[in-house]
Amino acid sequence: MVGETVGRLHKGGIIHGDLTTSNMILVDDKICLIDFGLSFYENSVEAQGVDVHVYFQTLESTHDRPGELIGAFERGYIRIFPGAEAALSRVKEIKARGRYL
Questions:
Q1: What is the pTM of this model?
Q2: Per-residue confidence of the chain (101 residues) as pLDDT tens digits?
Q3: Is 33 helix (H, G, I), strand (E, B) or coil?
Q4: Homologous superfamily of domain range 2-98
Q5: Which residue in the list 18, 28, 35, 64 is annotated as catalytic?
Q6: Residue 18 is a catalytic residue
Q7: What is the DSSP string of 10-22?
Q8: Are 77 and 4 in contact (CB under 8 A)?
């Protein structure tokens, strides 16, 4: 559900900028994103990857089984967003950059 929602944003050229579980609410069984104060328009793979990376980091730091949630996100994201494969590949690159800081 979250992957599909973010996929729609990215498909429309919108980067949330603070994609955390704190900025998501459930309304009528649908995920709604809130707090677009850091959002911007951009279609770059880097911006999309950073957006998704921030979300994955949130899951990894707050949930006991983040892999399941990340897998569900990826499936929904790929289903909706044509550029998902490139963005998810960039997430891996971004994660690797942080390991050596």
A1: 0.92
A2: 999 999 999 999 999 999 999 999 999 999 999 999 999 999 999 999 999 999 999 999 999 999 999 999 999 999 999 999 999 999 999 999 876 55
A3: strand
A4: Transferase(Phosphotransferase) domain 1 (1.10.510.10)
A5: 18
A6: yes
A7: HHTTEE-S---GG
A8: yes
